[in-house]
Amino acid sequence: MKNTYLDCLALFGVGGAHPGGLKLTREILAQEQIDSSSRILDIGCGTGQTAAFISNHYNCHVSALENNKVMLEKAEERLSTISLPVTIVEGKAEELPFEDNHFDIILSESVISFTEQPVTLSELKRVLKPNGVLLGIEMTLEKLIDKQELEAFIHFYGVTRLQTEDEWFETVKEAGFSAIRITKNDEDPDEEDLENATEFYLSENITDECFSVLETHEQFTKDFKDIVGYRVIRCTK
Ligand SMILES: C[S@@+](CC[C@H](N)C(=O)[O-])C[C@H]1O[C@@H](n2cnc3c(N)ncnc32)[C@H](O)[C@@H]1O
After folding, report:
1. What is the mean pLDDT of the chain?
2. Residue 87's pLDDT band (boundaries 50, 70, 90)?
3. What does the record list as coiled-coil region(s) (predicted)?
4. CATH no. for residue 96?
5. Shortest-distance Cα residue to atom 14 of ligand 1
6. pLDDT tens digits, 168-204
7. Number of H helices, E strands in the chain
8. How far does residue 44's CA lie from ligand 1's centre (Å)?
């Protein structure tokens, strides 16, 4: 497979590529103290849907980091149209190009799972201010399954590890975060969620391989409906 799942996500330009969509993003941010002086970082920002929302809604300082060039171009185009500048940075979650103690809030919307998780968490902690908040929406393993099945899922999506809720708790704790709260969101998506999630910004060079990757993704989504879920993770530095 030449194009990975994430490459195809970028070529299709999927807008809200995390579970719960922009609706969940709005809900979890509404519970935080954010004003125009807040500094927020969105790691693995994809096409910039969340970064644009935060900038428009909160008028605060938003930085968006991404390591996929196609995603970056699409985010740059989207974010060039909004009134407040968003700082878009090419970089890896495992080596954040930011100084220590810089951000009030960091969002990871289905991103940590794809990275070297302990390394990323330690970087996120480094760049958060003391008492800064990490908000993650991340995949979880809901049931123990056959090792080969699990490996097939991990290999297809390119995640580094698929953790249970308890394992996430331990990983986040080991990275030194406190006040860890992990919650399950059981709400079904509404019309608006589906619209945001199915926002596409297509590249011109989408290959047949990408359509077959999309079909495999749809098959995994059906087959793993009760096996893979997600949680909202909130913790502080
Ligand atoms: C499932 S997508 C989610 C995108 C976006 N957060 C959203 O909700 O639409 C995962 C994103 O993380 C990015 N990503 C994966 N590994 C990364 C890494 N090590 N550093 C930075 N970004 C990464 C991918 O390129 C992709 O845009």
Report:
1. 94
2. very high
3. none
4. 3.40.50.150
5. 44
6. 999 999 999 999 999 998 777 677 766 666 788 899 9
7. 9, 7
8. 3
